[in-house]
Amino acid sequence: MTPLNFKIREHLAPADLEFVVGTLGGSESERDALLSLLSDPSESVAILDHDFLLQAVLETTEHLPITPRLPDPDLADYVASVLAEFSSIARRTGPVPELLYSVDLLEQVRKASPYERFFIYSAAGNRYLFLTGIFPAFLERRERRWGAPGLSYYEQVARSSFQAAREHPLAREFALEGVYGLLAQRFRDMRRVLNGFSDSMVTLN
Question: Hey, which of 82, 145, 165, 185 would disulfide with 121, CB 3.0 to 4.6 Å?
Fold first, then answer.
């Protein structure tokens, strides 16, 4: 069992490749060279951090199916993997009840082995990062109409979950100490980045 594969930069979607090559490549030979470099993870990081790409994102008025820019490349990869993991569920069903309820979290942790707890904490943090980042208005409506837990509640659960995952020995084994530490410390900032992304990408009926 392993946590999310978060090296999204190493598995760019065709639309992402088209955007990068179309922005940075001039001639056909330059585009071919860029595609070759983007297939090499050691080269793709520098290309994806190019200032021209950021400028193109900021200046375009068209819809762009790209990952929001976050301050750390590994953090950006991880958040992108969370979106990929949960967006297919949300497209089919919306924020399903299994994603909303957290009351069983402590019970799961109590029954789990020390090894299993890492994955429970990680999954809980990912779940509520997605919910608070992509569906904040939905959570706020539930709170207003029915007195359900709101954004601040889910933020706290997510922050505590990522902190517990960071402190687990397996976080070091999977090289996730830094990512989980950032998510625990700056969860609200990360959530707000996704909120801005969600405003232009997601419509929830």
Answer: 165
